[in-house]
Amino acid sequence: MQQGPRPNFNRGRNPNFRREQQQEHRTNRMIRVPEVRLVGDNVEPGVYRTEEALRMAEDLALDLVEISPNAAPPVCRIIDYNKFLYEKKKKEKEMKANAHKSEVKEIRFTPNTDDHDFDFKAKHAEKFLKEGNKVKTYVQFKGRAIMFKERGELILLKFAERLSEVGALEGMPTMEGKRMIAIFAPKSAKKKPAKEPKEPRDPAAAGAADQAPREPREPREPRPQPPAGAPPVRRPIEIKYANRPPAAPATQDKPADKPADNNSGN
C-alpha cells in the first residue's frame, strides 16, 4: 500500500519560536505589536509605530529591545542588546556576591543559660558582627518554661549590652511562637576625618621670593702683605719618624761634690 506524503506539523509555526524562548527579551523583528513606547537616552520618549521604532534602531546601529512586555503598549528601548545583557548579568553577580557576604547568623539560648555559655556565644556574635553579618538571637522555651518569658527578655537585653560596641539592636525582643527573638545589625565603622589639603604654593610668589635681593656680606679684612724685597717667610717643617724610639726624659745635673778640705783638721 502506497503511503501518502508525511504531514508537516511545523506548517504555520514561527521559525524564530525556539530562539524567542531562549532569549530573555524580544528584540527587533521579534516584536510584532503595532505600537511601542520608547524610553531611554537615544530617542525622545513617546509612543511610536513599531516599524518606525525599528527604522530608528537601524539608523543608530542598535537594537530595539522590549523591556516591559505587559505594559500597554509594551515599553522598549533602543540599546546595544549584548551590552545590555552584559551589564545586567554583572549587576546580578554583584548583588549575589553582596547577599552572600552579608548572612544572618543564629545563636540559640535557653532560659537557664549559664554565664560560661553566655560568654562563649557572645564572642561568636562579636566575630560575626565584625565580619559584617547580622546576628539573630533567640531564647527557646520548652514545656512549662514558656511561663518564664521575662528570663528570656533579660538574657537578650544583657546580650545587647554586651554587643553594644560592635552591634545595634534593631528592635525590642519579640515572641514568635515559643521563641523570643532579637536581631542585631553590625555597626558601621566610623570614618576618620579627612586631612585638610595643603595650600598649593603660588609660583608667582615663589619666583618673587627667589628673585628678592640678598643682603650684602661684610668685606673681610685683607691679610698683611710682607714688605717689598723681603725674603719669603718659611715655616719650620716637622719630620715624624715611624719607628723612632721615644726620647729619654730630661734629668737635672747634680752639682759635683766639693773636695774635702785637708786643712780642716789642722
Could you explain how this protein is built, in words?
This protein has 266 residues and is of the alpha+beta class. Among the domains are: 20-93, Roll (Ubiquitin-like (UB roll)), CATH 3.10.20.80; 102-186, Translation initiation factor 3 (IF-3), C-terminal domain (Translation Initiation Factor IF3), CATH 3.30.110. The protein has 6 helices and 9 strands. A hairpin with a 6-residue loop joins strand 3 (63-68) and strand 4 (75-79). The longest helix is centred in the middle third of the chain and has 21 residues, at 81-101. It is flat, with a radius of gyration of 51 Å. The mean pLDDT is 77.
| CATH class value of the domain at 102-186 | Alpha Beta
Termini, distance in Å? Answer: 196 Å
Radius of gyration: 51 Å
What is the tally of helical segments? 6
Judged by helices, strands and strand pairing, the structural class is alpha+beta
What is the makeup of the main sheet?
5 strands, mixed
Shape: flat
By CATH, the superfamily of the domain at 102-186 comes out as Translation initiation factor 3 (IF-3), C-terminal domain
CATH topology of the domain at 102-186: Translation Initiation Factor IF3
| Low-pLDDT ranges | none
CATH architecture of the domain at 102-186: 2-Layer Sandwich
Strand content: 15-25%
What is the count of β-strands? 9
* H/E series: HEEHEEHEHEHEEEH
- Overall helicity: 25-40%
